From TrEMBL:
Keyword Ion transport: yes
Subcellular location: Mitochondrion; Mitochondrion inner membrane
Family listed: Belongs to the eukaryotic ATPase B chain family.
Subunit structure: F-type ATPases have 2 components, CF(1) - the catalytic core - and CF(0) - the membrane proton channel. CF(1) and CF(0) have multiple subunits.
Pfam family, one: Mt_ATP-synt_B
GO cellular component terms, semicolon-separated: mitochondrial inner membrane; proton-transporting ATP synthase complex
Species classification: Eukaryota, Metazoa, Ecdysozoa, Arthropoda, Hexapoda
Listed name of the protein: ATP synthase subunit b
Entry keywords, A to Z: CF(0), Hydrogen ion transport, Ion transport, Membrane, Mitochondrion, Mitochondrion inner membrane, Transport
């Protein structure tokens, strides 16, 4: 069947070209095939009949075939011995096999071809699905990578906030340390001032006390007693 198909594929363009050339030279319209690839008598391609139709008319192929067989038999080119009848038997068996076994075999071959094609298509679909899944996974990974970039930006912002907080804390520590030292200096000045005042007061008191004589102290005491007595008498 494959050799016959290859022969038809090679002979079809030649026969069509010859038919067109004959039609153009004779001015007649070439005979159109009813179905491309059709065979007659079980094994003769229809393109051959078309070639003879364009050359000799519709009865040309049959006249040629009958004349050729008659010539071969009359000239004893083809001797009708026992192999002749064996050939007829083989031809009949071949025709019967082609007619009876051809369709089931063709159906089986078509089913096998369909099965193989389905397996190939299934493998191709599986490969396409796996590639699509890989593409989707790659897109998801890219989306995750973009999320990682956003997370990295957030982490950088958090680090910047932590650095800002640490900077403010250190600034506050410096402020407190400077304030404490300044307060210490102020307190030192206050203490020095209080000590100076106390020393001056003690010095003045001591100077005054040292300047008072015993007689002045005695007179002052007597004066105080007299004043107290006068106040007591006045109170009565």
């Amino acid at each position: 069947m494959l050799s016959r198909a290859a022969l038809l594929s090679v002979q079809r363009p030649l026969s069509v070209l010859a038919a067109r050339k004959a039609a153009s030279s004779s001015g007649e319209r070439p005979v159109r095939l009813e179905q491309p690839g059709k065979v007659r008598l079980g094994f003769i391609p229809d393109e051959w009949f078309q070639f003879f139709y364009n050359k000799t008319g519709v009865t040309g192929p049959y006249t040629f075939g009958v004349g050729l067989i008659t010539y071969l038999c009359s000239k004893e080119i083809y001797v009708m011995e026992h192999e002749y009848y064996s050939g007829i038997s083989l031809a009949i068996m071949a025709v019967v096999a082609v007619k009876k076994l051809g369709p089931p075999m063709a159906k089986w071959a078509d089913s096998e071809i369909d099965r193989i094609e389905n397996e190939w298509n299934e493998g191709r679909e599986t490969e396409l699905k796996s590639l699509k899944d890989s593409i989707e996974a790659e897109k998801k990974e890219q989306w995750r990578a973009e999320g990682s970039l956003m997370l990295m930006d957030a982490k950088k912002e958090n680090v910047a906030l932590q650095l800002e907080a640490a900077f403010r804390e250190r600034v506050m520590n410096v402020y407190n340390e400077v304030k404490r030292r300044l307060d210490y200096q102020v307190e030192c000045r206050h203490i020095e001032r209080r000590l100076s005042q106390k020393h001056m007061v003690n010095w003045i008191v001591n100077s005054v006390l040292s300047s008072i004589t015993p007689q002045q102290e005695k007179d002052t005491l007597n004066k105080c007693i007299a004043d107290l007595n006068a106040l007591a008498a006045r109170a009565k």
